[in-house]
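Long-time lurker, finally posting.

We've been working with Diaminopimelate epimerase (Eubacterium cellulosolvens) and I want a structural starting point before designing mutants. I don't trust myself to interpret raw outputs, so I'm hoping someone here can both generate the structure tokens and explain anything notable. Sequence follows.
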Amino acid sequence: MKFTKMHGCGNDYVYVNCFEEKVFEPSEVSIKVSDRHKGIGSDGLILVKPSKVADCEMDIYNADGSQAKMCGNGIRCVAKFVYDKGIVPKTHMTIDTQSGVKTLDLTIVGGKCKKVRVNMGKAEIVASKVPVIADTELAVGAPITVKDQAFTYTAVSMGNPHAVVFTDENPALANAGYGSMTGEDLSTLKIEEIGPDFEFHPNFPDRINTEFIHVLDSNTIEMRVWERGSGETMACGTGACAAAVASILNRKVERGKPVTVKLLGGDLVIEWDEKENTVYMTGPATTVFEGELDLVQPLL
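Top reply, 14 upvotes:
Generated this for you. Predicted structure of Diaminopimelate epimerase:
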């Protein structure tokens, strides 16, 4: 199988050109290629396919083999993939996903795509549609009990469900043994422990991606993310969008202004047009290397 390794702010996937190749059992392939010791090493597998409704289609599988509907960092890399390879030689293109067709605008430098602005669509904030189980129509600062400790979170869907947790409002992070959080330092957060406790909580029927946020100023937030099916990743595009929307809803940042989201792998700029309820994400896309992988299991 020929593949391309790419990343968006460190959120890395293995990409396969399905205009030319057929991938059988993609869930199993994703588990194999994602292994960072015995495979290529990635947060999952993305298949780039022909589409009848857009310039191309992206089909996403997480590192555990589960299928995802949308990936903000992944879709920027798909745009770079199809542009740089001449599959879709457009600087304004459409990509079909399981959460709908997205439109993208590419910045080209030296004949290669370097940056992409994505229309990520609408932010869904009605709790039942995210979906999350809550006592109110909107889960904004909603209560939840984890390990007998009281937390608050804000639920947003960007085609996949997110729970956004602000560290300055959740001293229970320390009380529950998840790290000596002061609200000013995300590095002490034991995300590998709290992430699964949120992901598999019964209040989240489809599991959940969880973003832990430290607000730096009126236009900037810092984020660590636990992605369902993949664990902690260096960046999450839909998570950054959800975090920016949640920050605006909770009046943590200035309304009507772009929000810079600082992730472990780099920065994303998020804009939320509240009147149209449309979220835009701008960030880089990078090709790391290309190669071939023998998917035949060797005899032991």
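Before you design anything, note these points.
Helices lie at 26-34, 72-84, 172-175, 191-199, 237-249.
The two ends are 22 Å apart (CA to CA).
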